[in-house]
Structures are given as C-alpha cells and as structure tokens.
Amino acid sequence: DSGVTQTPKHLITATGQRVTLRCSPRSGDLSVYWYQQSLDQGLQFLIQYYNGEERAKGNILERFSAQQFPDLHSELNLSSLELGDSALYFCASSVGPALYEQYFGPGTRLTVT
Amino acid sequence: AQTVTQSQPEMSVQEAETVTLSCTYDTSESDYYLFWYKQPPSRQMILVIRQEAYKQQNATENRFSVNFQKAAKSFSLKISDSQLGDAAMYFCAFQGAQKLVFGQGTRLTINP
User: Fold this and answer.
1) 3-state secondary structure chain A
2) Which of A5, B34, B74, B102 has its CA 20 to 30 A from that of B50?
C-alpha cells in the first residue's frame, strides 16, 4: 500500500458525459501528479500540482482539468468524454516539486461506452 | 525533451534464473533520477528501485540491482533468483526537473 488513495476504483459512463476522479496524496506529500495509461501502453503524464499551484503540464487535453485543494487532495475533471478516453488514470504523490520519487495510487479505471 | 527507450517488449526467464531488462534514455539535464517500476496484473504501479544520477554506485534492493552507465545513458535492471511473483510489466522511468517520463515497458514472464 503506497499511502495514495484514489476514488472511485471503477467508473463506467457514456460519451459526452463529465466525471471527476479524486486523489488523496500520502501524508506529508505536497506534489500530486496525474497520469493516463491506455490499454497496454506506457503512462502519459497529464499534469502536476505542488502545494495548490499548477507546476507542470503534459499531454492534457483541453477537455480535461485538474485542481489541488488546500487539504492537498486533488481532482481530475474529464468532460465531453469520448470512447478514446477509456483508460486507467493514476494519481501519484511526492514530497517535493521535483527530483523526488513518486508513489502511485491504485488507479481509477474509466470506461466510456 | 527527454525520451526513455525499452527495446525489449517481452522477456521470459526460468524460475530461479537471472534476467536483465534494458533501458536507455536521452537527456541534456545533469541532475536527475532513474527508476524501475513494476506493474503486475493488478495494474498497481510499484516502485522497484531508484538511482540518483550523481551517485556512481549502482543501486541494489534485495534481488534487484541496476547497471547505471551514465555516459552511455543506459540503465538496466537485473533480477536475480527470479520468482513467479516477479511476472509483470516493468517500466523504466526518467525524472528530471519537470516530469517523470516512462518507457513503453517490458513484459516479463517467469517460466516454472
């Protein structure tokens, strides 16, 4: 158990809908990262927050947004969902903003039908 | 931009034998970390081992060790005394100042 929690574990929704994925980092960690893993693919970095502020952006679509709250939990919002958004979404956390190992949550499996 | 390449999509090894997974990376940064993550069928990402670029000594964690060749930008993972529970996807990853970049993974099969 990495100490990073993600809810829900599974999510099934229809195209065009909007969903919110939630992540709680390990106690003491200030950075939260979001990744997308499509079937049998590597992990693609989406976005990073550090202590409430956006720090780095990767291949995140405009239909996706994220935020980190004062209690350091983070939410990833996915809107106007398409079939291709079906994937495993991971949250990870680390102590600092960079050059620290990241610990991953169990992931949220999103299925868009 | 940093890139990470794992040239072996699949590997297999007999139980109790040793196997080495390859990884190369490309970067212009001088300060960085390298990691190997394991992803078993449960899909959980598990940190196996890490190596700081400034350290010359290769990292070791029990049966897992790395061969870090900084000049060649190579970072291979050696698994000794392979066990059935080692069967998984293994991802090499580069952590620089901005983000963690993953390779495409190597699927490791353990033959009993």
Assistant:
1) CCCCEEECCEEEECCCCCEEEEEECCCCCCEEEEEEECCCCCCEEEEEEECCEEEEECCCCCCEEEEECCCCCEEEEECCCCHHHCEEEEEEEECCCCCCCCEECCCEEEEEC
2) A5
